[in-house]
Write a structure and sequence with these properties.
A hairpin with a 2-residue loop joins strand 1 and strand 2. By secondary structure, this protein is mainly α. The chain has one domain. The chain has a two-stranded antiparallel sheet. It has 9 helices and 2 strands, in the order H-E-E-H-H-H-H-H-H-H-H. The longest helix has 42 residues. Helix 4 crosses helix 9.
Length: 252
């Protein structure tokens, strides 16, 4: 599948990020803060309690994992496509001992690292808002890394099929944004009609939201084991599919 050399691709992306972090990192934190203030404190003043919680307490877990997802998709769609098609970075790297699989695995794990950084940063914001009560939340960064691999693999899959940058407008409009609103981030799934509830559970963000919320609440049930297993299955499938399709795109 891929070798340890994927770390070289990961290191390459890390070094570029460390040089440009001041132009990328602020938006990662500022936008979630705006959403928390506007939705949690503003709208929350009218919504009241949701499942026995203040509204801001309810949405914090969803904000953490959804914005981690956004950072992954931004990195592994636009960013990966730019490196692949515009800069021809991949063509140069696969001329070295690194294989296509090494390059793509490095991209996927770098996307997961971006998820880890974003999730951790927003968790600190939630801590500043005094919305962290359970010690289980120390596992939120690890969960961000875990589901980051899944979202990176899905994003690379879309990138492997994209003919141009404009394709990603459809990916965000028809896939990412609907998940943001229909995966239980802002209100319980039980408020939807049964058909929408069933479709929502197919969306990869839904089990992630449930697991993150369980860590904040410190309460776990069998459904959370199912959610973790579903994430693993989706990750394995799209990781493999991304390697196959990217090899076809870069070598044929």
């Amino acid at each position: 599948m891929f070798s340890w050399r994927f770390l070289r691709m990961w290191q390459r992306n890390r070094d570029v990020f460390l040089r440009l972090w001041h132009s990328e990192a602020p938006g990662t934190v500022i936008e979630p803060i705006i959403v928390l203030v506007a939705m949690g404190l503003g709208l929350g003043a009218y919504v009241g309690l949701v499942d026995g919680q203040d509204y801001i307490e309810f949405i914090v877990p969803g904000i953490i994992c959804s914005y981690a997802m956004f950072s992954v998709f931004g990195e592994c769609t636009y960013g990966t496509f730019f490196r692949m098609e515009e800069r021809k970075t991949f063509d140069a790297i696969i001329a070295t001992p690194l294989s296509v699989e090494d390059v793509i695995a490095g991209e996927i794990f770098w996307g997961a690292t971006r998820s880890l950084m974003t999730g951790s940063a927003i968790l600190l914001v939630a801590l500043a808002f005094q919305q962290v009560d359970s010690w289980w939340t120390v596992l939120v960064p690890f969960l961000s890394l875990y589901h980051g691999v899944m979202f990176s693999s899905i994003a690379i899959f879309f990138t492997s099929l994209a003919p141009s940058f404009y394709t990603f407008n459809h990916v965000f409009t028809l896939f990412v944004t609907p998940m943001f609103f229909l995966s239980g981030v802002f209100f319980p799934l039980t408020e939807f009609p049964q058909l929408v509830q069933n479709l929502s559970w197919i969306a990869p963000l839904t089990p992630v939201v449930h697991l993150t919320r369980a860590l904040f609440e410190g309460e776990f049930h069998f459904i959370h084991v199912v959610a973790a297993g579903y994430i693993l299955l989706v990750t394995i499938f799209f990781f493999w599919l991304s390697l196959v399709l990217m090899r076809r795109r870069l070598t044929v």
